[in-house]
Structures are given as C-alpha cells and as structure tokens.
Design a protein that fits this description.
Chain lengths: 120, 553
C-alpha cells in the first residue's frame, strides 16, 4: 500500500499556482463525511487536484461528486495516473456548505492501493 | 526594448556612489580570478564606471564578471535608477541594455532553457529544477529570473548576500552552489558563441507559422529590413488563418541583442477593436534566434498579465519549395477520399501525387489543386493503418510528425489545464483566459494522460462553466462568462473574492464508451488583482501573487 501524507496550505500567499489558494471556509469543518464510489476522472492540476467519482445513493441513483485535495507539489509521489477511471475510492472529508457535491479530502484510499492521509 | 526611465534627474552618480557596492580593492583580491569581459562602450563607462571601479584591463567591477539576457540587464538598470539614483535618458538606457546584452549576453544554448521567462509563459518549474533554488527564488519570482544570469562563483555568492540583505532573507548555500554550477560565468557555449565574428543577419524574407490559442494555426511571411540603427529592424508580416482564411497584417520594430535575442513590438495596420484578443492589438515580441540564424521562435503577447498571445516560428525563405503546415492534423484509420492541405511556399506549378509523401498507411489518391502556397490533395487511410504520427513531405521538404492516424478519440483535454483569470479594479484591467479543446487517443499503455498518448488536434466542442460549490447555475454570471469559442471573461464587477471554476468542453460528435459525449475540463481560478493580508498588500503577477513593490526584485 502506498501512503502519502499531505499538509494543508491554508491561505493565499506569495508563491506560484502550486500554492493552495483558499481556506476551507466553503466547507463544513464540523462534520466529516465518508463516501465510497467509482472514479470517473482525476485532475492532477494546480492549485488543487480534484478527483471526480460516482456514488450511488440509498435509492440507487448515481450522484456525481468532486473531491478536492492539495496541489500536486504537495501530493508527494503522486502522478496524473495515481487515480484512474474505474478505481473504487473511499473518501473522507468536509462537505461544501452550499450542499453541492463537493468535498475537501482529509483521507482517501483507492482500490489500486493509493492512499492519502492528510494532516488535518 | 522599452524601458521605463522616468527618473531623469540631475543627480550625479557621485552622489550615490557610497550606496553602491564599490570597493577600491584590486578586483583579483576580491576573488575575481576569472578573466572578465572588458567594457569598451563610452556610455557604459561614463554611466557605470563612476561606481563600478575599473581595472587596468578595462574590466568594470561586477559588470565584467556577469552576463545576462536583455531582461536581466534591463532589470539591473532599473534597479540602479530606482535605488541608486542613476540618471539616464531613455535612449541612454536602451543603449546600455543593448551593449551589455550583446557583449555580456547569453549564448543561444544558454538562453533557450529560460526563454519562457522572457516570453511571459506560465511555466511550472516544480520538479524541473533544484529544490533549494526553487525554495530560495520561487516565492517571489521564477527561478528562471536568476538563471537568466551567469556569474562567477564569487559573483553568485556576492549577489546572494546583497539580495538577501536587501530583501531580508537568509542566503541558501545550496542554492548558491547550484547557481554557481549551472550558471557559471565562463561556459563553452559562451566561448564558442562569442568567438563567432558575425551575428546572423536577419534582414530578408522569412516564412512564419503561428498558433493562436483558440483560433488554431496561422501561416504567412515576414519581411525584415534594416531600421538604421545597428541590429535594429523594421518588420512587416502577413498571417493567414488556416481555419477561416482571416488575414492579419502587422508592422513592427525589433532589436536583435547579441545575435540571438529578438525583442520587439508590433501591431496590426488596422485599428484593434475592443475585443481583448483582437489580433491587431499591440504586442511585445520575445523570440529566440537559432545559433545558425535559420530559425526564430518565441511568443508575441499582450494583456494586463501578458496572458494573451501568439506562439510564433519563423524560418528563412529560400528558392526551394518549403512545407510549413498540414491541415487537418489527424485522420481516422479507414477514412477514404479525405482532403489534406499542404501549406507552404514556392510550390511549383505542376504537382503530382508522387511529389507528396504522407507516410505508411496513407495514400495520396490525387492532387485536387495547387497554388504556390497551398496544395490540396485527396488521401485514403488504410483501415489497418497503425495509429501514430506521420511525417509529411513535399519532395525534399519534410514536416516531422505532421499528421496523426487514429482509431478513436479517447478523451478531450482542455488547455490550459490550470490557469488564472482576474477581476479588474481601478488600477488593473481584467485578466482573460482563452481555452482550447484537444482530442487524444490513449497510447500503447492504455492509460489516459500519459506521455505515449496521441494528440489529434482541436475538437469541436460546446463550452460551458461550473463554479465550484455553487448549486445555482444562474449565479455564475457574477464570476464571468465563457464564449462559444472558449474565451473566458471575468465579470466586470470585482466581487473581492476568489472563485474556482471549471471551464467545460463537451464534444459535439465524439462520444465515450458509455455513449455520452466526451467531456474535458480546465481549472481556472478567477481571482482579485490585489488583496491585503496582515497589513501587506499583494498583487497578482504572471502566475503568483507577490508583495507590492517586490516585482522589482
């Protein structure tokens, strides 16, 4: 199992796009949620990597979720193919306050062995 | 080269000599053990020599042991004007930059790796360069800014100490050692380049190809003529769009520094319209000239953040036919009677299928038409043709990897994959972003987004956008809009906040295995031009926010 640790850079600061550029105000940090789904796309880009995945709700309807992570430079050891369509992921994080299907990832594990364990 | 020199003051260099890093000590005693480049220009001697002490060989302290790109010398001169009250008229400043960039410049092989800095391209340096260097330099500017200089080991040490003192940080010894190793004052490339008696003469007719993000390929020609001053030129170019035949005519003026650094300005002969991406807009030109003078490549750019521009390649015109572009850039295996356009120069009156080679698996069935600058042919592609790039030739003129043969479009990539756009305010115009959708077939490894994937060219798409965390799509207008051509315009009102936005390209015809249209996404952060944090004001630069006033570093 490959485990990676990510520090969360919290605010806009001097530095390139590689630096995370926003805080977590858009996310409800009082509650963590955990979702299990299938990866449809992985964006290994600045300023935040994003994994898109599909989750089936209680009624079997598919929900399209996006889980946001830190920047590639802080995802030590990750590449653009660390997560691929078809991987089954379990994602834990803070959900967007707006109710949109967005998460800020704190932990992630994938069926291909990739794992992210964040500091926060 | 346009240098802002507003501080034309009567104060003499003598008044500020004490603040410059001067010393009456013999230069060798300071550790300058390498042979310097004597300064022979009377203006440089007059303006710089009062503070930069000269030795008996004509070397000026520090200056004779440093080399840099035109941008490097321009920045150094600005600092001298700003911090040390050096008094210069704009023509004097331009003349000094020109002399130093020529005699104390970089060899083409040295400047090419850092051209992205002069070309104002967003360039991710992470992973490409030494980590301590990135840590030391990257918080305020591209590491390429440092790598645009060449100094002795002592020179780098002295520079780092001065720089650290000025901006209050601790010099990183590993970064200094790295710079001394990869950016030495003396190099074989420089010795070889300097020894050549004559710089390539750029006057005459050149053939051009260009790529305009979102508008595709252009081709044309540029005439370069002497402008009167040494290494100064007038240009007139005519570009044709491959996609729609639109013609753009521009004129300009350029300077060739040291035979390898083309810098200039040009603008359309027709008045630019209000559209920020109008191709008649005045643009800066930063281009690299190949050592043999046969090729020039670089970027013309404009915009509040230099975010709009044209990627340009020039090659010398000759008496022989030259193939410049092929359109379309890809063909599907098994397609028959497809039209292919070969765009070039001096094609002969009589052309036969035997004159055109399109690689294995493709057959030229007939020539439909030909003119001196375009051949239209009909080609068949075998159903079992292997996917991959093909060279295309017209007689002896070959364009490598000019077309791709593919089986299917596996995914759509939106470029740039990540980018910035910026709201405007009283002091800053808006920063825009043009997107493009490119089709790809997976390579032999079967995985998307890997190095062996086959690029197929632009895909027809419908553009839309999605603001992160937003559940009401009617509120997207407060962030901005994306046009049917993929041009993102931030909202006119600055909301004082950052927004993360997906720019979404939905293919009009290509579908995935699930039967749904292929979709690609580009990530744009729509941000503010300035913000204040803990009493410090930050402003957006090319790809980062820097503390106000620090851009002069």
């Amino acid at each position: 199992m490959r485990t990676f640790t990510s520090g969360l850079v919290l605010f806009l600061a001097a530095g390139a796009l590689a630096i995370a550029h926003h805080g977590l105000a858009a996310f409800d940090q009082t509650n963590k949620v955990t979702l299990k789904g299938t990866v449809t796309e992985f964006h290994f880009v600045n300023p935040h990597s994003v994994v898109e995945f599909e989750v089936k709700d209680d009624k079997g309807h598919v929900q399209e979720w996006q889980a946001e992570m830190t920047s590639p430079v802080h995802l030590k050891g990750w590449t653009a193919t660390s997560l691929e369509p078809g991987n089954v992921v379990t994602v834990t994080g803070y959900r967007a306050k707006s109710g949109a299907f967005y998460l800020w990832v704190t932990n992630l594990s994938s069926s291909n062995g990739v794992e992210l364990r964040a500091l926060k | 080269m346009h240098l802002s020199c507003r501080s034309i003051r009567p104060s003499s260099l003598v008044q500020t000599a004490g603040s410059l890093l001067i010393s009456a000590m013999p230069l060798l005693a300071q550790g300058q053990t390498e042979v310097g480049i004597p300064v022979t220009d009377s203006l440089v001697l007059a303006k710089c020599g009062a503070c930069h002490a000269a030795d008996e060989k004509g070397n000026l302290q520090r200056i004779s042991w440093a080399r840099a790109t035109p941008e490097g010398w321009q920045e150094a001169l600005k600092r001298m004007i700003r911090e040390h009250d050096v008094s210069l008229t704009p023509p004097e400043a331009r003349a000094i930059v020109k002399y130093l960039s020529g005699r104390h410049g970089l060899a083409p092989e040295e400047s090419k790796p850092v051209m992205y800095y002069a070309e104002r391209r967003v360039h991710d340096e992470a992973g490409l360069l030494n980590a301590p260097l990135l840590e030391a330099c990257g918080k305020c500017h591209d590491a390429a800014r440092a790598l645009s200089w060449r100094r002795t080991a002592d020179g780098w040490k002295q520079f780092a100490e001065t720089h650290a003192g000025r901006y209050r940080f601790k010099p990183d010894q590993q970064a200094i050692a790295y710079l001394a190793k990869v950016a030495p004052f003396y190099s074989r490339e420089w010795a070889s380049w300097r020894a050549r008696a004559n710089a390539p003469e750029p006057t005459g007719r050149w053939l051009m190809t260009a790529h305009v993000q979102g508008r595709g390929k252009f081709h044309g020609e540029i005439d370069v003529e002497a402008a009167g001053g040494v290494d100064e030129f007038l240009t007139r170019m005519r570009l044709h769009s491959v996609n729609d035949g639109v013609v753009v005519v521009r004129t300009g003026r350029s300077v060739m520094y040291g035979g390898s650094a083309w810098r200039g300005r040009s603008q359309g002969i027709s008045v630019a319209n209000a559209a920020p991406d109008d191709l008649s807009t005045e643009a800066r030109e930063a281009m690299w000239v190949a050592p043999d003078g046969s090729k020039v490549e670089g970027r013309w750019f404009w915009g509040q953040y230099d975010e709009l521009g044209v990627d340009v390649t020039m090659q010398r015109a000759s008496a022989d036919p030259a193939l410049l572009l092929v359109d379309p850039p890809s063909f599907k295996a098994g397609s028959n009677a497809s039209r292919i356009r070969l765009i070039g120069d001096r094609f002969p009156a009589q052309v036969t299928p035997a004159d055109v080679s399109v690689g294995p698996g493709m057959t030229v069935r007939r020539i439909i038409s030909s003119t001196p600058d375009e051949i239209v042919a009909e080609v068949d592609v075998a159903a079992d043709a292997l996917a991959g790039k093909r060279n295309v030739s017209f007689r002896s003129s070959t364009l490598e990897s000019a077309v791709a043969i593919y089986d299917r479009v596996d995914y759509v990539k939106v470029t740039p994959e990540s980018s910035l756009a910026t709201f405007g305010n009283q002091t800053h115009s808006r920063g825009f972003q043009q997107f493009e959708a490119i089709g790809y077939q997976r390579g032999a490894d079967g995985r998307p987004h890997t190095a062996d994937d086959l690029e197929l060219g632009p895909v027809q798409v419908t553009w839309s956008m999605e603001v992160f965390y937003e559940i009401d799509p009617t509120k997207q207008d407060r962030v901005g809009t994306v046009s049917p051509t993929g041009f993102f315009t931030p909202a006119a009102a600055n909301p004082g906040n950052n927004y993360d936005v997906w720019i979404i390209a939905t293919a009009k015809t290509e579908k995935g295995k699930d039967g749904k249209p292929l979709v690609g996404k580009g990530y744009v952060v729509v941000t503010v031009p300035t913000y204040t944090f803990e009493g410090r004001t930050f402003v957006r630069e090319l790809d980062r926010w820097i503390e106000e006033g620090s851009s002069a570093r």
